[in-house]
Amino acid sequence: MEKSSLTALVRNHLEVAKTSSSGRSAATVYGGHEHVLRQTLIALAAGHKLDEHENPGEATVHVLAGRVRLVSEAAAWDGRTGDLLIVPNSRHSLEAVEDSAVLLTVAKVLASPVLNTEKG
Predict the structure, then answer these.
(1) Which SUPFAM superfamilies match (predicted)?
(2) Which CATH number fits the domain that encloses residue 66?
(3) I need a labelling partner for 80 at 20 to 30 A (CA). Which of 14, 31, 93, 115 fits?
(4) Structural domain that includes position 90
């Protein structure tokens, strides 16, 4: 079992985001390319955003600190500390209304295995 402090990660990554030219900082908290589940802490300085992108699978955004806006072509949702936003299955962006940190959880869609139906 592993344990990490999201509070400490938020504090550290917000400091990095505020001094970074991109206005952001991120770290994988759990998972990765070899896992279906991936959790990433993303810190954004106020006014910065993650540009519009595709959804890689089922995903949620848990707002750990601050205020964010999740925007898709069809709608926009505001999230504050403690809110859980369901990421739409469409192109979307995430903007920090104020200095913010979120926990992005993604369950990636796996490619279906190709079945070999030939008999030898």
Answers:
(1) RmlC-like cupins
(2) 2.60.120.10
(3) 31
(4) 6-108
Query: Which pLDDT score is estimated for 112?
Result: 55
User: What per-residue confidence (pLDDT) applies to 113?
Assistant: 57
What is the number of H-type helices and E-type strands within the chain?
A: 1, 9
Q: What share of the chain is helix, strand, coil (3-state, %, to 5)?
A: 10, 50, 40
Global pTM? 0.85
d(CA 30, CA 51): 23
The total of structural domains in the chain comes to 1
Q: What is the DSSP string of 69-88?
A: EEEESS-EEEEETT-EEEPP
Give the SS3 label for residue 106: strand
